[in-house]
Design brief:
Blueprint (H helix, E strand, L loop, with lengths): L10 H6 L3 E3 L4 E6 L1 H4 L7 E5 L2 E7 H7 L2 E11 L10 H10 L6 E4 L4 E6 L3 H9 L3
Antiparallel strand pairs: 1-5, 2-4, 2-5, 3-4, 5-7, 6-7
């Protein structure tokens, strides 16, 4: 028996209910060894790639641990509970930001999508996302 939880799939509902929330913390993307993962107390997530383990963590933790990392990003979480089978949300969000030349790294969680945008463009990204319909 399948244990299923459903989120919203309709793109118009998703965009209307997007309700982006800007996190105050500054994050970075770093590469670590398996052993270094344990040193990161507040990492948001990691992904094993053929070149090594990529991790999203607090910028200050990456700097303190001396990890190879790139950039400072603010996390914008979409409050709407989106289905993992929804079609078009990532495309609409990334296109709106790309049209303004704002870099965006999107991570899909089970319940919500999370966007990582450069610190200097975070407020502008919030304005753009809040205006999507």
């Amino acid at each position: 028996m399948e244990n299923s939880v459903s989120g919203e799939k309709d793109i118009s509902v998703l965009l209307t209910a997007l309700a982006p929330v800007l996190d105050a913390e500054v994050y970075t993307f770093a590469t670590v060894t398996e052993a270094e993962i344990e040193k990161l107390n507040r990492s948001l997530g990691f992904f094993r790639e053929s070149e090594g383990v990529s991790v999203i963590c607090l910028l200050r933790e990456a700097q303190t641990q001396g990890l190879k990392h790139e950039g400072g990003f603010r996390k914008i979480s979409c409050s709407v509970y989106s289905s993992l089978h929804a079609v078009g949300l990532t495309a609409r969000v990334s296109t709106a930001l790309a049209d303004r030349r704002i870099a965006c790294n999107i991570v899909a969680g089970f319940y919500h999508d999370h966007l990582f945008v450069p610190v200097a463009r975070a407020e502008e990204a919030m304005t753009i996302l809040s205006s999507l319909k």
